[in-house]
């Protein structure tokens, strides 16, 4: 048994988890690799060539690296767990007029749970991933903070993790930038990893066409929702659309409607198959309500605490005052933000530290 301990590492076959394996191995951990197969084209209905973290090539790449470094590697089929929870939720959220964030749910409810369960079975003290984020212990809590490389920071998708999960989690890449990881790959004979292209698509929608995915997953959806109304804020009918699930808050392109000035999606009303349109300035809001939240840095939030709040992954964040009411967070931004989308994650920061996050339930419209 290694003095450092035994760690179960999630391996996708890509550069980040591969170099994480190399680092853990060099640091003296006893590494066990595991690749989780979360989906395939047979279940997602895609038509493109199979690529990404669940492809046969990626699984083989992960296994080959484990063989080269001399540690065991397992393949874990969690397609049923993944599909029943993540894909069903993805579909349900769009049918409810919201915009889901499946990566957050997958980390919280599928990947970490699956890793910890198998870690226990394999007598591993720790689990590890190739995320660009940092973790430390402070005031009897495990705290996540942004990665060193702000262009690759992935703390936004980790807000749902529990303290029990974080207690056993390692982020081997936490003190590195992406450029350093690529250089490390080249220097260790893995130049092919450094040259691999990276995908930023949702893994089970590899053609990046969520509308087509919904049509394939829900029988008769297109017929059921086609021909709904575009309306303005007063309820005036502006034209016909192709179905409310196929639109997202803030969308401008692809509306196929001309009313003189550019129109944006302001709200989606599933009950009447209506999509509310308006002008760009109408997207500006200063308040929202957040539910199903989880706290990382603190056990509870002081009422009125001011935190940098992100409403989407690439959002730089806006300072907001947070108050708690009936297990919901009321968020008042210090200046207006654009296109608050129910279903997306609201994530709160104090400096670089991840305070917590939750699901946007609604904005004040």
Question: Which properties best describe this structure?
Answer:
single chain, 365 residues, alpha/beta, Rossmann fold, SH3 type barrels, Elongation Factor Tu (Ef-tu), domain 3, 3 domains, six-stranded antiparallel β-barrel, five-stranded parallel β-sheet, 17 strands
In short:
It is built from ten helices and 17 strands. It is α/β, with parallel strands linked by helices and 365 residues long. The protein folds into three domains: 6-130 and 172-195, Rossmann fold, CATH 3.40.50; 224-278, Roll (SH3 type barrels); 283-363, Translation factors (Elongation Factor Tu (Ef-tu), domain 3).
Describe the 3D structure.
- The protein has 365 residues and is α/β, with parallel strands linked by helices.
- It folds into 3 domains: 6-130 and 172-195, 3-Layer(aba) Sandwich (Rossmann fold); 224-278, Roll (SH3 type barrels); 283-363, Elongation Factor Tu (Ef-tu), domain 3, CATH 2.40.30.
- Helix content is 27%, strand content 29%.
- It has helices at residues 15-26, 41-44, 56-69, 79-95, 102-121, 163-167, 178-187, 191-195, 210-217, 221-225; strands at residues 6-10, 30-37, 73-77, 126-128, 133-138, 141-146, 169-170, 229-231, 237-240, 264-269, 274-278, 284-295, 305-310, 318-325, 328-338, 345-350, 353-363.
- The protein is globular and about 70 Å long.
- The chain starts with 5 loop residues before the first strand and ends with a strand.
- Mean pLDDT is 92; it is low at 47-51.
């Amino acid at each position: 048994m290694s003095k450092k301990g035994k760690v179960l590492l999630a391996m996708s076959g890509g550069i980040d988890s591969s170099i994480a394996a190399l680092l853990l191995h060099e640091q003296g951990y006893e590494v066990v690799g595991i690749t989780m197969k979360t989906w395939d084209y047979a279940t997602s209905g895609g038509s493109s060539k199979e690529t990404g973290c669940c492809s046969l090539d990626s699984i083989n790449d992960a296994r080959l690296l484990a063989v080269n470094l001399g540690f065991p590697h397992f393949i874990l089929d969690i397609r049923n767990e993944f599909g029943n929870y993540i894909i069903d939720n993805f579909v349900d959220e769009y049918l409810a007029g919201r915009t889901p964030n499946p990566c957050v749910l997958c980390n919280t409810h599928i990947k970490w749970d699956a890793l910890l369960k198998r870690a226990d079975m394999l007598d591993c003290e720790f689990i590890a991933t190739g995320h660009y984020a940092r973790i430390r212990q402070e005031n009897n809590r495990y705290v996540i903070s942004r990665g060193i490389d702000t262009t690759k920071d992935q703390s936004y998708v980790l807000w749902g993790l529990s303290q029990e999960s974080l207690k056993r989690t390692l982020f081997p890449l936490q003190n590195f930038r992406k450029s350093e990881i690529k250089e490390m790959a080249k220097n260790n004979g893995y130049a092919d990893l450094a040259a691999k292209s990276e995908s930023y698509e949702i893994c089970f929608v590899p053609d990046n066409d969520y509308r087509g995915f919904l049509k394939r997953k829900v029988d008769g959806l297109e017929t059921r929702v086609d021909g709904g109304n575009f309306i303005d804020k007063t309820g005036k009918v502006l034209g016909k659309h192709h179905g409310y699930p196929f639109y997202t808050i803030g969308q401008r392109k692809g509306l196929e409607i001309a009313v003189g000035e550019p129109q944006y999606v302001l709200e989606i009303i599933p009950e009447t198959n209506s999509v509310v349109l308006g002008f760009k300035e109408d997207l500006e809001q200063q308040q929202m309500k957040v539910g199903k939240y989880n706290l990382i840095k603190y056990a509870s939030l002081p009422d009125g605490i001011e935190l940098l709040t992100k409403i989407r992954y690439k959002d730089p964040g806006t300072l907001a005052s947070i108050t708690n009411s009936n297990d919901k967070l009321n968020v008042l931004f210090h200046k207006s933000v654009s296109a608050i989308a129910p279903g997306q994650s609201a994530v709160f920061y104090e400096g670089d530290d991840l305070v917590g996050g939750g699901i946007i339930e609604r904005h004040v419209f």
